[in-house]
Design brief:
2 domains, 6 helices
Length: about 220
């Protein structure tokens, strides 16, 4: 049975975690205005890690995850655009996502690596426009992982996606493989989905997804 000192330590840990989660809204808004959504989202992760470290062990990991996501979500609760530090670079004047109320609208996301800008699965054509072989399964998985990174940095997740709009440049060639990888991620989440064939995408990729998620 815990002794007096141990009980006091546990109470202090709980108090710190509670304070992190329930920070006054005016403090949150001030931080948001001064640092911007990307920075405060990262701060949410840092606070989660701190809370997890305070608790330590498996319980600390769980607490850190919960605190990090709650703080990140709270810090990025204002309507507006968000550019993720861990997302692939944009090819135009648009953010990774835009929040309106309790909905998050994610821009069309492709399979390019956020770290190297490489098209995972290979490009569909060379610089001269000649067709190349490519791996649509690898591209589809990379697209979904990019979306996961963006949502989690914001404080949301794949599990909160409610609608998916998919674009394929070659429906006949690629649909079955794309569908197989898609099912690995979404067969239990079951968001609404529309899959369309397009003649081309802005970069030499075969698949692009845009999603709507709950904040």
């Amino acid at each position: 049975m815990p002794e007096g000192n141990e009980l006091n330590e546990e109470s202090e840990k709980d108090d710190i975690v509670d304070k992190v989660i329930s920070a006054p809204s005016e403090v949150i808004e001030k931080i948001y205005e001064e640092l911007g959504p990307s920075m405060v989202s990262s701060a949410g992760g840092a606070l989660g890690a701190t809370a997890g470290g305070i608790a330590a062990g498996p319980v600390g990991v769980a607490i850190g995850s919960v605190v990090g996501k709650k703080v990140a979500g709270k810090l990025t609760s204002n309507d507006g655009h968000f550019i993720a530090e861990n997302g692939p670079s944009a090819v135009g004047a648009y953010p990774h996502l835009y929040r309106v109320g309790e909905l998050i609208f994610v821009s069309g996301i492709g399979p390019r690596s956020p770290k190297t800008n490489e098209i995972i699965g290979g490009p569909v054509r060379d610089p001269d426009g000649n067709p190349l072989d490519y791996d649509v399964k690898a591209q589809t998985r990379s697209v979904i992982e990019n979306i996961r990174l963006i949502l989690e940095e914001y404080g949301s997740s794949l599990e909160k996606i409610v609608d998916v709009y998919s674009m394929l440049i070659d429906m006949e060639r690629d649909f079955n493989d794309y569908n197989e990888v898609y099912a690995e991620y979404f067969s239990e989440i079951m968001p609404a989905r529309t899959t369309c064939a397009v003649s081309a995408l802005p970069t030499p990729i075969a698949v692009e997804l845009k999603v709507i998620a709950k904040a």
